[in-house]
Amino acid sequence: MAIAAGSTTRLWTLVAKEFWRKTRRRLRGGPIHRWRYSGRTPERVLIAPPDLRLADRQIALEIYYGRYPLSGHLVETGGKSPFQIAVANPGWQKALHGFRWLRHMRAAGTELAAANARALVSDWITIHGSNISGVAWEPGTTAKRVIAWLQHSSVVLQGAEFPFYRAFLKSLAMQIRYLRAMAREMPDGKDRLRARIALAFAALSLPAPASALRGATRNLAEELDRQILPDGGHISRNPMAVLEILADLLPLRQTYANQAETPPAALMGAIDRMLPALRFFRHQDGSLARFNGMGATIHNRIATILRHDDTAGAPLLHAPHSGYERLSMGGVTVIADTGPPPRIDVSNAAHAGCLSFELSSGRRHYIVNAGVDTYGAAEFRPLARATAAHSTATINDTSSARFSHSLRVNDLLGTPLIGGPQHVPCKRTDQQGSQGFLARHDGYVARFGLLHERELKLSTNGNVLAGRDRLLRPGNAAIRNNGRDFVTVRFHIHPDIGLLKDEHDRLVLTADEADTWVFTCTEVAPEVEESIYFAGLGGPRRSRQIVLAFKASEISEVHWQLTRTAIAGHPAKS
């Protein structure tokens, strides 16, 4: 109960901070403070930083015809400026005002695309440039826009007349001053880091005194040291955050080099740690493991980033600071979550998936977590974040952490994760011919008095994954039969995998021209149930799951095994 009370106290402290932060932001956007963002207009853009994000000239054509496919949603403007219409989807609004879509205009490489880009930037300056409020001026969105305007200034300014050229630079300078004032007060997390990255880009790309570059470099280094963990993960524990941050840091490193400036050691060190971390989370088909906010993977994006990875050899197997383990043998990859939740102030996308794992063999995924539908309806997010959406154990159909709060909290903070595991000890058990780990978490102790312990061992050249799930009370006391000891161990099957039964009534996971895996359990007869896979590129898909259900007071430990083999089977009954 003390842990729950401490989590509640931290939550309301965060609510108070966020309320004060938003109040100060409104004040800073008002007429009393707005004069602080005026000042000298830069004469020109010295350099346009590179952009590693994928571009599609077809999207530039869609935008020309008034169709905006942003953040997974298509909006048709009917000839109006997109900045004049009301769209309820906040993700689409943020993507619109972030201006990353300018890269598609640059990819088109035509005068028509450049003129359209210039017209849309002009619309934004006219409609939102002096009205510091709303989604358009959220600091995280402003940081994206500053970076995008700098990276694609060549296409925006192509053929521009002098009045637009000056208006563009004047607005850009105003946004940079605003971002500089807001950066230190932004909530912790990748948006705050991106603001520091944007300010470093600005100091390199626009005429500025040497002191401005020194200050931007120093602040960036401090933020990198704070947010990028020693093993290369991000404090949010989200694999997608590693990819997103690298997509900004790598061009920034190049911009330092292009301007003959020495990049900070923290920037070089962060990149050197994060590239192997990205490979750590990567399955052999190129997709990232679905943990803590990770959804569908766009494979070309990762390939573009990893072209900059000069490290050789296999990915790391142990990420103790991020809280993950990796087993890899014989073309088989197992990635597991073995860490506590991130800090409450960076847990808005975190999942209650402690001790869950994913298994891939070759280019096929067999055991997965449900992941998230990145651009889908918000009401599905709680389902995707629940422990039951992960390949791990749940007790009494309850998640190991809580993320449902009052409307007041949700309006201010979103849905931070609280009350989860506090201690997740983990140790590797690698031996000759096998890789493994043993870990446990205390996320259910406060409510049910039970610890969950999981041991995984990959052996026989990757042909056997042996697992053991154990429930125990602190101090190894006997588990009471009190109606609060019902355990469900779930193994979510990727929707592309068939689930059959062989002649021995064993469950068989199979796919065309791919490996076949047999699932067995010693103590409990496995059942097959319906499931949902949220992380498909086309949105949620129906799938299935293998379930081991038992009472911990009767069976405190189950042993299960996935064996790679080739057995003909017939359809299993759900």
Task: Please provide a written account of the structure.
The chain is α+β, with helices and mostly antiparallel strands. The chain folds into 3 domains: 147 residues, no CATH class; 129 residues, no CATH class; 230 residues, Beta-galactosidase, Chain A, domain 5. A hairpin with a 4-residue loop joins β3 and β4. α3 crosses α5 and α10 runs parallel beside α12. The longest helix has 27 residues. It is elongated. Its main location: periplasm. It is found in: Periplasm. One of its GO terms (molecular function) is lyase activity.
**Strand tally:** 20
Q: Describe the main β-sheet briefly.
A: 9 strands, antiparallel
Q: How much is the average pLDDT?
A: 91
The CATH architecture category of the largest domain equals: Distorted Sandwich
Low-confidence stretches: 567-574
| C-alpha Rg (nearest Å) | 25 Å
Q: What oligomeric state best describes the polypeptide chains here?
A: single chain
The CATH topology of the largest domain turns out to be: Beta-galactosidase, Chain A, domain 5
Q: Please give the count of helices.
A: 17
Number of domains: 3
The CATH class name of the largest domain reads Mainly Beta
Q: Helix/strand/pairing class, anyone?
A: alpha+beta
Distance between the amino and carboxyl termini: 39 Å
The rough form would be described as elongated
Approximately how much beta-strand content do the residues carry? 15-25%
**Helical amount:** 25-40%
Sequence-ordered SSE layout with sheet pairings:
Elements: H1 2-28, H2 31-34, H3 57-64, E1 67-70, E2 73-76, H4 90-98, H5 102-108, H6 111-128, H7 139-151, H8 153-156, H9 162-183, H10 190-205, H11 210-227, H12 239-258, H13 265-280, H14 299-306, E3 318-319, E4 324-329, E5 332-337, E6 357-361, E7 364-368, H15 381-385, E8 393-395, H16 407-413, E9 426-428, E10 434-441, H17 445-448, E11 451-459, E12 464-472, E13 486-493, E14 498-501, E15 507-510, E16 516-521, E17 527-533, E18 541-551, E19 557-565, E20 570-571
Antiparallel strand pairs: 1-2, 3-4, 4-5, 5-6, 6-7, 7-13, 8-13, 9-10, 10-11, 11-12, 12-19, 13-18, 14-15, 14-20, 15-16, 16-19, 17-18
Main location: periplasm
Subcellular location: Periplasm
Keywords: Lyase, Periplasm, Signal
